[in-house]
Amino acid sequence: MDPIMHKAHAADLVNAARIRAGLTWAGLAAAIGAAPVWTTAALLGQHPMTAAQAGVVVEMLGLGDDVAESLQQQPNRGSDPAVMSDPTIYRLMEAMSVYGPALKALIHEEFGDGIMSAINFKADVTRRADPDGDRVVITLDGKFLDYRW
After folding, report:
1. Which reaction does it catalyse (predicted)?
2. Domain range for residue 57?
């Protein structure tokens, strides 16, 4: 019996097939009826998909049941150090390093002692036109969870 394909390998196959097929992450998300950010994260190995979702994706991309099986597995969430050095990801981490303490203070001031959940969470990326160059708008939408004893 062969082992289940590692999620990183499945992600590489999905991305290559997506590019070669001329499909977008948003198009794949629409096909499975899920949000683009969640779908992209799932296809890159950060969330498990349902059998139905995985089936639609592998059919669209011409991939096998081994990829569908991998897409349904629970992930080890997070990123490896090599990914963290990517300029876009690094700049996002830099923004959190600079503005994270201020955001934390404002969350505590507005909501009290607690955190924004990354489990009960939604995210979105949009483009906003600006005369000085288009702007990237990232919305992080997490449920507030108060600390309780």
Report:
1. cyanate + hydrogencarbonate + 3 H(+) = NH4(+) + 2 CO2
2. 7-71
